[in-house]
Write the structure tokens for this entry.
Amino acid sequence: MGNDESIFCYQVKFRFQKLLLLSNPATMKLTFTKIFYLVCIIVFLGSCDQKEVPVPAEQEILFEAYYINHAWGKQHNGFLIDKDGNIKTYKNPADWNFPSADKEISVDQIAKNLAKTALASTKITQEELNEYASRIYTIDQTKLSKPVSVGADMGESVFVTYNYNPDKQTYRQILISQSGDWQSENKDKSAQEIKNWLIEIGKKIKQ
């Protein structure tokens, strides 16, 4: 949750406490409007502390990790994780669909990419998958650092999550970590935990 949201939640809590103080508990003379307002605030305060957000049922792809380098011949390999915990690997696929400049990619393009992957023998349990998938939409994207050039010809190691837009039938890549020629990192706690988890998944499928 961003700083603005945190401040807003604090303000609502303050108003909630003030309203309780203005109400006379001895006589319990609360109007219907006040009671309704109190109930709405209580429900809202629960959402302020929410640390998990369910992924839309239609969302097929959740995560991706890959390495890409064109300096010494084509090197493009990685894996995607779908909503069932399947790990789909790829290595130098032809005609791969990359997201647009605004990081959007259509459902059809994703489907074509998936057709060029191989199913890994390792599968993620639903419990483990839910633990990390529920954090995708909680990532504070304002905590992503600006890209910094740190080298050349090293390629890029990239970790992303996917947000799904059912109205547009598109996905949007959410960068959580990039290292190599350019370096950028999202310091959000959920982003870091997802990145570390994806690193471990990558180690398992290489064994």
